[in-house]
Amino acid sequence: MSYVSLSGLSAAQLDLNTTSNNIANANTFGFKESRAEFGDVYSSSLFTNAKTTPGGGVQANKVAQQFHEGSSVYTNNPMDLRISGTGFFAVSKDRLIPQQNELTRNGAFHLNKDNFMVTSNDEFLLGYQVNPDTGDVLSYEPQPMNIPAEFGKPKQTANIEVGVNLPANGELKDPALFDYNDPETYNRSTSSTIYDSMGQSYKLTTYYLKDQSQPNTWQTYYTVTDKEGEKPLNITGGDATTASGQVGHTMRFNNDGTLASLNNGQPIVSEPLGASANPLNLNGADVNQTLSFGLDSATQFAAPFELTKFDEDGATTGFLTKIDFDENGSVLGTYSNGENITLGRVALVRVSNEQGLDKKGGTQWDSTQFSGDKIWGESNKGSFGSINNGTLEQSNIDMTQELVDLISAQRNFQANSRALEVHNQLQQNILQIR
Known about the structure:
The protein is mostly beta strands. It has 3 domains: 1-69 and 394-433, no CATH class; 71-150 and 334-391, no CATH class; 164-310, Sandwich (Tick-borne Encephalitis virus Glycoprotein, domain 1). The chain is built from 2 helices and 32 strands. The chain has helices spanning 2-24, 399-431; strands at 34-40, 58-65, 72-74, 81-84, 88-92, 102-104, 110-111, 117-118, 124-130, 137-144, 150-151, 159-165, 172-173, 188-195, 201-211, 217-226, 229-233, 235-236, 240-241, 247-253, 259-262, 268-270, 292-294, 306-312, 318-325, 330-335, 340-350, 358-359, 364-366, 375-378, 386-389, 391-393. Strands 5, 6, 9, 10, 11, 25, 26, 27, 28, 29 and 30 form an 11-stranded antiparallel beta sheet that branches. The mean pLDDT is 90.
């Protein structure tokens, strides 16, 4: 029957198309190869003998995708993600309706103009909100992942903790002659940054000089530099005063180099930065801002001058400088103000039957009644795989095998064409019998 050969031609054509599609997507990230699956056709009746009845040809049962993993390709993009193991990324076409989403293994993401992580088709990657301090997931309701370009409100500096070693063999100086413009009048100086309530930065300079009139004693003075220049910063209730009237404080050390007394036991607090005799230009911020210094860890050992600690509690608004991901799928943002924040966690999804997924194109699938409902989770939890960044999953096709399959499908097509040709020739011969 010609139908048998025609069904063979149709099957061979489907096999060729499937193999060609696999080859065409060899460089498509996250692509899963397809396999054409066939079954024979058999029919019988009361008027046929089952022992002598041939098959009725072939039929296509399914074009099934194979979900085994592809190999990795390493990139220099930290937002390129790969799932090692089971699971899919979830992406949504509409940022406001994340409940309507599809699944993909293609982890080539980037930031759009609003700093949302999106695919090359501008679909939004879904993730979970986390506690920025602990990194724990706050809610497993998936939301589009946003990476803020700025982080943190400005905070004025109020408290400063300083650790310093002052050399025991330092050159003796006369405190009455101290002048921050003359390096010969002090031993050492250090500079650091402080902030006002609007996040404007200023340079705070600390000057140390070893008092020639008292053993194991150092005097410390401060200045702050704004856009108008360097200005002295006096200590309220300080116990060290220069000839010019600048007020600092005194550090006295024991013979073993440990701190004996500091500013006669009084707290070290600066005068209001914007209300001094030479007020700082605080950019419209709080003129009553003061600084509280802690120097309880200061030492005087026979060792070089060393600033061992400088911590201050002020901050300015930070701008995004780096994005990274950990093995749990948490996105880590680094900002210019020194903040390292956990901004969210990538959501992973799996289904009970991957073969039941509905192909949507663009290396995306959607769940159906045959695949089972979507099961939401996260990297490295339960049966979900782990997320690696800076790498992508390549197509899982084997090019060598695909070329072999292509030749096999071509031979099948040619053989069925020949069978059809022979059948037609026999019919012509019968019709020509007289």
